[in-house]
Amino acid sequence: MTTEIKRKLNVEVNGITIECAAQARVLDAINEAGFDVPTLCYDERTGPQGTCRMCLVEVEVEGKTQQVAACTAFASDGMQVATHSDEIVDYRKTILELLLSETSSPTACPKCISFKKCELHDAAEQYDAKWDAFPSLVAREKPKDPNPFIQRDYDYCISCFRCTNICNDWEQAGAITVHGRGQENSIASFFNNDLLQSPCTFCGQCINTCPTGALTDKKIVGKTKAEDLKRTKTICPYCGVGCGIHLLSENGQLKGTEPDFDAPSRGSLCVKGQFASWEFVKSEERLKYPLIKKNGAFERASWDEALDLMTKRFTEIREESGPDSIVCWSSARSVTEANYLMQKFSRVGIGTNNIDNCSRT
Ligand code: SF4
Ligand code: SF4
Ligand code: FES
Last residue of some domain: 59, 84, 109? Predict the structure, then answer.
């Protein structure tokens, strides 16, 4: 007798039957069926932790009904899921109002003002949750942190710990951790609150996963209006890895970048992609034409002058010291064809295998 392994499950979400993978979670089935529940502590890259309880739904299996966190519970064959029963909607609204009572005013949220509606305030709006439904708790202090990239305002923190999870488990930087308990808790770097003294690589992932205005891009926050920001999907121009980004622009002016979570890089960026891949566009120091150093100072030259000089000097150096005295360094920002030509020039034109690219640096 052979045991048949069931590879697909039939799950009914709000009356719609869908087929999902045998290992699917209830949240996967909900998304597959086209419904949405708030998931304030969930980032698919680090997996579920089930702490915010916003994704609670009612499930019925073989006549038994229970409430489960959709992000952690596994789906089962024949399961019926209700995402928005009156009881669940009321429950979510109460949780949101409790969270709002721990945080600063939604009208001053730096993420909502400068970038886009944050997940907390988006959910609060959807569920008509009021900021003043419960007495507010004591405001948390902003850490004094001179780093140039990340604005930290923990009075918007809801202790979801997406930032510590992404920093420790995904980026493996181990720069931040949870410090203290309850309303006294905060997100801190080890031993002090200054990110510049921590192992932080300024990858920006904590900003991008944070569902509130607690963490924002310091270079942009306060300088843009969320309603005017335009996002253009592209590839980071900094190195050959080619992580997906969105360029942020306002009235035709480049303002910054955000990672593209739909790209193969799944939202990961390095400090250059996150905070600097746009600034050089308007730099006064960009090279726009050839420069030749004469008497210790660079002077503008024509392409013919520059190419003649290069041919002369390359020939002289090769004759004096041999082809391996020359190294060619190619730009990872160039297209593949240009890099191919560069290695051809190095190997065939100069006669050396000394060719590398700047992706390694
Ligand atoms: S920027 Fe990156 S390395 Fe630094 S704290 Fe955030 S997630 Fe960690
Ligand atoms: S700073 Fe943001 S991501 Fe980190 S625990 Fe607070 S709300 Fe969550
Ligand atoms: S998203 Fe499921 S408990 Fe937070």
Answer: 84
